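Protocol step 4 of 6: record predicted structures for both targets in the notebook before any analysis. Target 1:
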Amino acid sequence: MDYEFTHKPSYTHLIVTLEPGESIIAEPGAMVGHSANVSMNTGTSREGLLSSAKSLLGGESVFANEFTAEGTSGTATFAPPSPGDVMAHELQDETLYSTDGAFLAATEGVDIDSELGGLKSMLGEASLTPLALKGTGTAFIDAYGGLEKLELAAGESYVLDNEHLIAWDDQIDYEIQRVGNLKSTLLGGEGLVFEFTGPGTAWYQTRDMDALVSTLAPRLPNQG
């Protein structure tokens, strides 16, 4: 499988070239288009697919889309729902954790698990549904706004707001803290922050969708 990005970094568009028989799964609504010989199946039985799709839609659906090239090679194109960047992360028998809404697509060999026990419960109150992307393959993660990579050396720490965090690897340590600060007060209630400690890597987005909604809401016409 080959892939390329166009319109980076503000309106990134993912183009995937699939060899005959190759597949890729994508979050519902991510598809822009595909070749006529690429089939789209909804709700396949690939391990982890149904549970991950349910998480992506906040528990409202058990469907996700799988695209497969049939007969000859073909292309499929995807884009995230908000303007911003997309990254490709190569997994080699490892795990990448992603926050809800940041997962865009994954190739064969990547299993997606939403059953993360205490972590899932811990983040539930903050409307975060973490996904564990496990195995060997390529995972595509999208960001609202710019996408930044945070590489921490051993013992080095950094704190990220949960609304900006999009992914982290399985090497980095972290603690989740509930805070009441100016930002969370303006957005109505307490928020969560992640304190990461290296060695390891985390990724974050430079914009916050909830902050945008809160900024626009008072300016919208009152619909009663």
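Target 2:
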Amino acid sequence: MNLSVVIPVYNEVENIGEILKRVQSTKMAKEIIVVDDGSKDGTRALLQNLDGKRKVRVILHESNQGKGAAVITGMQAAQGDILLIQDADLEYDPRDYSTLLQPIREGLADVVYGSRFLGAPHRVTMFWHMIANRMLTFMTNILYNTILTDMETGYKVFRREVIEGMNIRAKRFDFEPEFTAKVLKRKYRIFEVPISFNPRDYSQGKKIKLKDAFEAVWTLLKYRFVD
């Protein structure tokens, strides 16, 4: 099983080196695809020095297009038969890779979501952000007749065939609901596993905003009825 780790990056000069070390230390990735989405803080220069070293491949967007666009670029470039999305901000811990991959290795799942709400260790912070996440997940469950606990999780792992022929239009944080909607409508087997979580707050550079929650609602509604 060849694992491709896709890392979308925007203005993470302080974190990108550390997250790459953490991913590399798992010794599980056959390739690490880093897509810089038009960073302006020195991230690009740092990445250019890392390109080609220790399984890292760097792709540069000339301008900022959004997280979804960076993820799509990475998925299109990935060569592994299993893809894993890894945020660069150190909120998600690559030491959870074994847990995330186990249901796929055992033939039980096509897609695995790492849930922040299944009891694993996590930093205690940002109550209203958690409420928004749970409301979006609840809406997903109603619209698509499922029982997810964390639709918005950044840890999504899936077999390559899941995205073959899947036209994902999302450019920003609407990637999460669009991907989820299309996976559910195609009846792929989804497993959730508990993951640890160390969220940063807005003073530390968190990028998702309230308007993205409204965009997620519209995305869930739209893709319930269209492809």
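Step 5 preliminary note on target 2. The domain at 3-225 is CATH 3.90.550.10 (Spore Coat Polysaccharide Biosynthesis Protein SpsA; Chain A). The longest strand covers residues 3-9.
Proceed to step 6 after PI sign-off.
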